[in-house]
Amino acid sequence: MHRHLSLLTPSGHLTLGNLLGALRPMAAAQCDAPGSADCFYGIADLHAMTTPHDPARLRALTRETATLLLAAGLEGATLFVQSRVPAHAQLAYLLECTASTGELSRMIQFKEKGRSSTRVSLFTYPALMAADILLYRPSQVPVGADQRQHVELTRDLAARFNSTYGPVFTIPEITVPTAGARVMRLDEPSVKMGKSAGDVPGVVRLLDPPDVVRRKVARAVTDSDTGPDAVRADPAKPGVTNLLDILTACGGSPDGVTTYGALKKAVTDAVVAELEPLQRRYADLAADPAHVTGVYDAGAARCRKVTAPVLAAAQAAMGL
Ligand code: AMP
Q1: 124-148 pLDDT tens trace
Q2: Regarding beta strands 38-43 and 140-142, do their DSSP bridges make them parallel or antiparallel, or are they unpaired?
Q3: pLDDT tens, 86-97?
Q4: Measured between alpha carbons, how far is 142 from 148 in angstroms, rounded to an integer?
Q5: Ligand 1 neighbours by CB, cut-off 6 Å
Q6: CATH number of the domain within which 65 lies
Q7: Would you say 245 and 193 are in contact if contact means Cβ atoms under 8 Å apart?
Q8: In angstroms, rounded to a whole number, what is the distance separating the alpha carbons of residues 185 and 287?
Q9: Cα(161) to centroid(ligand 1), Å
Q10: Would the pLDDT of 33 be above 60?
Q11: Is 216 an annotated catalytic residue?
Q12: Whose CA is nearest to atom 8 of ligand 1?
């Protein structure tokens, strides 16, 4: 059985974009017969510390994200919090000893955000990301365009390690993920609906109550077209196209919808119906924290077991 690995950084509250673009495909991968995968889904808390962070907020977001992954039906996967599997940080250090500063300086994220006050971890985190991947020896890594450079670096580091110290790592192939929904902000449809944006009107969070969803959708940007076919997907109408995408991704239908008011009502109803069962499961799980802790403890224990031989092989090859 092949392995499927995916990590989410607890840097904000999960959004409708995360649900449709990540959690749904992650849920499908764990029971996607006949090619079902051994899925490892992690919360990358160490990656949330590369920029100034508040410890209490990080702890709360890690807990919330952990509970949301379970509420989203990912209990068939091995769920873990990255910092509870020390091999991630341990292998990251070994990989830092194979990477050059020139290589890491070329990473787009560092080029965009790096300045003298930047945390060193923002510079070195591609090595941690390479460790996250290589420890599980996946044969394939599906990545979107924004992460491609990191996985290319992962392949380079693995190949260099293998040729310098011996064949320890499987070099993963990069695959293009099956096109998931790409949800854009309701107030700014040219920008991805991201969890780092903060509580802005254009970002629907998974735990937003129905009246908040209604208010946010009501304020969604459309356009001034009032023609009979105004409600249509069209690159020239990004706001309307985004609403239509959300509507269909949430199981609604645009049939018979001819005005923006009706479209917004249909989108609100579909999103609320999509989130309602998830929020109910979330509330049940949040009321039973021992269960959530137990699931993640068991997941981390399995990850420690799976990753131990890979870390040990890398340590031995390097002379430790
Ligand atoms: P991020 O929240 O950017 O760290 O991304 C975590 C996961 O959610 C990745 O798999 C992203 O591709 C996915 N994701 C994040 N935002 C969106 C969005 N607006 N639409 C679709 N997928 C998204």
Answers
A1: 999 999 999 999 998 888 777 778 8
A2: unpaired
A3: 999 999 999 999
A4: 9
A5: 8-9, 17-18, 20-22, 144, 181-183, 192-195
A6: 3.40.50.620
A7: no
A8: 31
A9: 31
A10: no
A11: no
A12: 18
Same domain, 214 and 267: yes
State the angle between helix axes of 87-96 and 120-134 in degrees (0 to 180), rounded to the nearest 10.
110
User: How many angstroms separate the Cα of 193 from the Cα of each of 13, 16, 50, 227?
Assistant: 12, 8, 21, 28
Total residue length of the chain: 320
- Give domain status of residue 258, yes or no: yes
113 is catalytic: yes
9, 11, 13, 18: residue to mutate for ligand 1 pocket, most atoms within 8 A of CB: 18
pTM: 0.94
Task: Tell me the CA–centroid distance for residue 229 and ligand 1, in Å.
Answer: 31
What is the rounded distance in angstroms from the CA atom of residue 138 to the CA atom of residue 1? 10
List C-alpha distances in Å: 11 to 48, 57, 149, 272.
6, 9, 21, 24
| Eight-class DSSP state of 199 | S
Distance from the alpha carbon of residue 8 to the mean position of ligand 1, in angstroms? 9
Instruction: With respect to residue 170, please indicate whether it lies within any of the assigned structural domains.
Output: yes
Distance (Å) from CA 22 to ligand 1 centroid: 6
Residue 89's domain spans which residues? 2-180+288-317
User: Which pLDDT tens digit goes with each residue over 215-257?
Assistant: 999 999 999 998 899 999 999 999 999 999 999 999 999 999 9
* Tokens 């919330």, residue located: 64
Q: Whose CA is nearest to atom 14 of ligand 1?
A: 18
| Cis peptide bond N-terminal to 34, omega within 30 | yes
